[in-house]
Design brief:
Chain lengths: 269, 269, 269, 269
């Protein structure tokens, strides 16, 4: 009898149809980051009860635009690039659990289904969105160069509502590209019972992060950021901007090879 | 301390951001169905080991194009229709488990993220696709009427590869709109462990189906169907067409209010 | 030698590739209309110098959401419905030229390239947009019915900026579905010289309208309308809402078979 | 009285809404090119009667994938990058007119409406398509590097039909990135009369090309190319591949500032 294969559904005899292929997953791309402060009470309100605020700068938030090319082992996706390229915009806060500081993604929008599927596995609360960020080319007059004064725009919309617009003006090379997204991620993975009102079948707390980081020169600069809500998305209302900390740009490569189960409250329902 | 709300991620204090709202979910739309026979060995190969072929016509397959408007309690989605409307194309076979015959969706493509999220909950192996089906208007020369001779086209593509094209010519009113998608659905819900190679954290077999069906007059007719594969999707190769059984069209309304857990092999990994 | 064929570019020996096929063009669909008053000075400002305000209610504006299926002779498009279906949202005012009252489209967004091409031919100033309008199905709980109290939403966005949102609540059957879009259209067709700063090569004033109207029962009701601008589109700023006149819904069919040249100032540049 | 402004429709008092802003237009991006030979009779058949085959290698064809960022004077588009970025795939042949050799675009698909509008002005026969090409990043494992052995994929689809797929394997730096798209473009600009059957109102032959070319290092290599037709697009059938000549990659910048009228047969119809 034929066995079924595939990392995520659908499963088939050959496994070709799976929404997401086996680990590891490889990423090459750019990150445009805006970091800001909100009232720490806003961060507290978006964290589960059993996860605490980070002890240092607990109101810090990062919103990051990533322009990715990604593939699995063998790189077949790179040859049909529609299956390889996507963008995402995501919102990260820091938190503390059992004495350790983590980063945590509290909102994320991506442009492709395979990225949504990876998010379900990794505990990223992914939705689809329309995500754009200025690119840096080396030729012609329709592009900033990677240099002081470069201006990079970014936008995020979902269901035809503009949720975020940003403008980063690069000023100088920097050591890193921000501190908010700098820890391992602490995420919840959950699935309600198929029976209405029976609670959660899967209810896990997991930790994860990339490996084999291949980092380009980071740049930092000034940033402007405008956030909004829609009937389907809260962004301004949950994490309003009190003070902009700065903006960053960096080309990066990274590999994702799995994470660790931290706590499991899954039930047979 | 604020509690977090939402049926599926992301969770927020008010729950507005959730990809999918609470049950029940309401659907109004049309179904264009093509039923055909494939070698029963093909159906056997796409079923998990512990699920058996249906005893009667085990090689029957339905591919269905649904053109939906949907909402949750209160109907807010209907007022911002981009959040309410979507299309899906899905492939259904029948199977048997512990003596009961079920329908089972083995492939499905949808056009919106909320529909993907509902599928993850219901065990539909959803991916994004581009789905189109001819509509029946009552005025003008750019539409068939709901009458004998009406010709309805349909298409499915994913990652810019055309996977299916269909043409149904209606012949006469009929009792129903096919038999393959006529049972409760038997689906697997699973999630791999976040730790590479550790197997499945969630591993459930569930049954579900719609309630409160509000059925329009069904029509049946002749059908043509062309299936293809792509590097990312198997359709022709897993369930090739041996013989077309017929085509159907029907306007329908239905409500989804949950299902039942049949078996659970979830593990703490 | 092979001749080249096609109504609009590209031309090929068989003409299959043409963006738009030969006239006539057939349309079946629905129209959701909101009519309102703006200061007549706003309408005056959006008209060319040689076109005057309509004598009666010169500040009347209609914004219309159309949900179309369309095809050319033979109806091949209907069998590959992605090539047949599109939506558009457009803004119409009235005007007067040489003593005759016309309607005139001053802004329009469509969802497909063939609709853009038809607009270039007809003098509609078409751009791409994301257009959605609530549909009326006959079954299930996720749809209004065509009856008093039905609520229909509509939205328009371009470049991820929401430009218009509307809500129409139907109250009663009515004679017609508004008066602003009720005359022949008076449009300009122009093309700048390929040489910079040389003015217009084509510069025509044309009149056109549909024929063979096949009209469903119109309904009228109350309406809400919210307009906005973006960096790329003016809508609120050019035709702001002073007073809502009403909302309408109607299923319609129509044929377009060409129009008439009214004036021609084209030059050889 | 307010004047109306805008390069292409719609015109408004401030001109902000125009589909395309004033010249000049700036471009920064990458070009992936595959050059091949078809039977010269195929090229002859796609040229108007009064344009002749190029004397040298008349059957040469280039298909080019361009990944662009573009803007007008002031660069406002770069700060809302959804308005600046687009891709296009286009097919170029060479031809001869009054003793001069030109390049000529015979088919082109773009991803944004402003690019369609520019094409109408320039005589490019633009349609919308879905266009993808592998990008070259400097970091991580999900990207080729600009070096021998790099493999770059590309795809083109329209109306959910895959029309072209290409794979270029870079071998070495080269002087240029092909010869087929190396001349000024000779294009027709035409518009049928609004009155059915009256011929063309605008009927121009124009020449144009970019200026201020800012060229990166070109690379050449091997190429594979697969072309197809759909009910709406001819590509394989009009210019089938007899022999692949090679593939190229180059980063480029260019400015478009207008062209020259070569012949004008416009009529007042």
């Amino acid at each position: 009898m034929t066995a079924l294969h595939g990392f995520l559904p659908p499963l088939t005899p050959r496994g070709t149809s799976a929404l997401v292929p086996n680990l590891p997953w490889y990423y090459s791309g750019t990150l445009l980051t805006v970091e800001y402060l909100t009232d720490p009470a806003n961060v507290r309100a978006i964290l589960p009860d059993d996860i605490e605020l980070a002890p240092d700068r607990p109101g810090a938030v990062a919103i990051i635009w990533a322009d990715w090319q990604s593939c699995s082992e063998g790189g077949l996706e790179l040859l049909d690039p529609i299956r390889s390229q996507y963008l995402e915009a995501f919102v990260v806060v820091r938190c503390s659990y059992q004495g350790e500081v983590y980063s945590r993604c509290v909102a994320i929008w991506v442009t492709k289904d395979f990225a949504m599927g990876r998010g379900w596995f990794q505990g990223y609360p992914k939705k689809l969105g329309s995500v754009h960020v200025t690119r840096i080319f080396s030729r012609g007059k329709a592009s900033p160069r990677l240099e002081a004064g470069a201006r990079l725009g970014a936008s995020l919309a979902a269901y035809d509502h503009r949720l975020a617009s940003a403008l980063v003006t690069l000023r100088e090379p920097s050591e890193g590209n921000g501190f908010v997204n700098g820890h391992r991620m602490l995420h919840n993975r959950f699935m309600p019972s198929i029976s209405q009102g029976q609670g959660l079948s899967m209810d896990q707390l997991i930790a994860m992060g990339g490996v084999d980081a291949d980092l380009g020169q980071a740049w930092r600069g000034d940033a402007e950021l405008s956030l909004a809500d829609s009937p389907w998305d809260e962004l301004h209302s949950i994490l309003p901007v009190d003070e902009i900390l700065g903006g960053y740009y960096r080309e990066v490569g990274v590999t994702f090879a799995g994470g660790d189960l931290i706590a499991d409250r899954s039930r047979t329902v």
